[in-house]
Amino acid sequence: MPARIIEAHGLIKSYGNFKAVDELSFELVEGSVMGFLGPNGAGKSTTLRMLVDLIRPVSGNLRLFGWDYRHHRSRILSRIGCLIEKPDFYKYLGALQNLELLGRASGIPNPRSRALEMLEFVGLAGRERDPVSSFSHGMRQRLGLAQCLLHNPDLIILDEPGTGLDPQGIVDMREMILNLNRQQGKTILLSSHHLPEVEAVATHLVLMNCGR
Fold first, then answer.
1. Nearest by Cα to 181 from 159, 163, 204, 165
2. CA angle 50, 35, 186 (to 5 degrees)
3. Residue 164 has pLDDT above 80, yes or no
4. Model pTM score
5. Collapsing DSSP states into helix, strand and coil, what is residue 61?
6. pLDDT confidence of 169, banded at 50, 70, 90?
């Protein structure tokens, strides 16, 4: 049986009287691509923020790789790569410099070599030294994906990665997701409100609406 990467049971996240996530339960097994599908405001991004411990549920049980955040936070996060909302970088530095700094901070061996490898994977080879301030939205999305892959995570969490991309950019992002799953064996959770984007890559699906 494939290992359970995410086990979420009865998650609730509320802000005052408003329940952004209401009794949500799901499991994600190793080697899957799970699509989180739902309209804007359904609770998808709130759920993803709980999965990477940016916010905590008010109740419910959440385990990743068999551990909980109360006792194994660093251990869990070291195995997750995430692209949530708009990625941010030092805009006056080049793409390679940004990734090198992040690699050193994360203790990655040979951060320059790894950064160059990831830039090539996301299609930014040849633009390594250009300042990020000169990058289009789509290029910054690619750089954000390179950043979340830098430490070779086991679980990749992507929040609306196709937002703002042109048609070719959407196709390229889809191909990279399929490569990560089928060739590299990564487990992926992909949030979107766009059915064709999810349908093209997902092996499993969670439908969300009004936090449920």
1. 204
2. 80
3. no
4. 0.93
5. strand
6. confident
> In this predicted structure, what is the pLDDT of residue 111?
93
Q: What is the CA radius of gyration of the chain?
A: 17
Residue 192 structure tokens: 């979107």
Q: What was the pLDDT predicted at 98? A: 95
Find, among 198, 137, 203, 197, the residue nearest to 165 by Cα: 137
Is-contact 179 118, C-beta < 8 A? no
CA dihedral over 134, 149, 108, 121, signed as positive or negative:
negative
80: left (phi over 0), alpha (psi -120 to 50) or beta: beta
Q: Hey, what are 63's tokens?
A: 């385990």
- Residue 196's pLDDT band, with cuts at 50, 70 and 90, is confident
Q: Are 156 and 82 a contacting pair, CB within 8 Å?
A: yes
Report the distance separating Cα 35 and Cα 114, nearest Å: 28
Give the model's confidence band at 69: pLDDT under 50 very low, under 70 low, under 90 confident, else very high.
very high
Sign of CA dihedral 58, 61, 65, 69: positive
* Chain centroid to CA 172: 16
Q: Which residues pair with 207 in a beta bridge?
A: 37
